[in-house]
Design a protein that fits this description.
The chain has helices at about 5, 40-60, 70-75, 85-90, 90-115, 120-130, 135-165. It is mainly α.
């Protein structure tokens, strides 16, 4: 090797730096800018929880027909489908969401009972959103039949083992 090649040293890249959450710090990874800061911080989620509780209480007092939680989401500029992941991040928001869902369930049921809402739409919403089940007897019968079928299969396997052992 020549003396020129020995004298030219390669510049080493600086070691990337991570923040406390393990993300790259801005500009420390070869020009990588890091992640965007959270729009919905813990404090912001707590404020949203209080706002959701107030929104429910205002609608209860006003006897307002607004009972869709999606209305509140659009009011605070949140996509309703993203609410689930934010509920998992904040205990206060989780409680407020459960409170709002309970109120929504009660409002929909009461509206259908007093014929203020279409009963078919109320039934559909309660089934899809709140886990209500129709024809509980049929579901219980299907479950019982499935359990009997499983028991029958186990007994057949035991009989086969006995025959194989003889």
């Amino acid at each position: 090797m020549s003396n020129e090649s020995k004298s030219v040293k390669k510049k080493r890249r600086p070691k990337p730096i991570h923040d406390t959450n393990g993300y790259w710090m801005k500009g420390s990874n070869g020009g990588h800018t890091g992640r965007k800061p959270w729009i919905w911080t813990e404090d912001k989620l707590d404020e949203l929880a209080e706002d959701l509780m107030n929104w429910v209480d205002e609608n209860i007092e006003a006897k307002s027909p607004k009972f869709l939680i999606g209305d509140w989401c659009y009011k605070v500029k949140m996509i309703p489908q993203d609410l689930k992941k934010f509920v998992e991040r904040s205990e206060k928001l989780k409680f407020a969401h459960r409170y709002a869902k309970g109120w929504q369930e009660h409002t929909v049921f009461k509206g259908a009972l007093y014929k203020k809402l279409d009963s078919n739409m109320a039934r559909f919403m309660l089934t899809c959103t709140h886990g209500w089940k129709e024809n509980q007897d049929e579901l219980n019968q299907e479950e019982a039949l499935e359990n009997e079928f499983t028991r029958f299969n186990k007994n057949m396997e035991n009989l086969k083992e006995l025959e194989d052992n003889e």
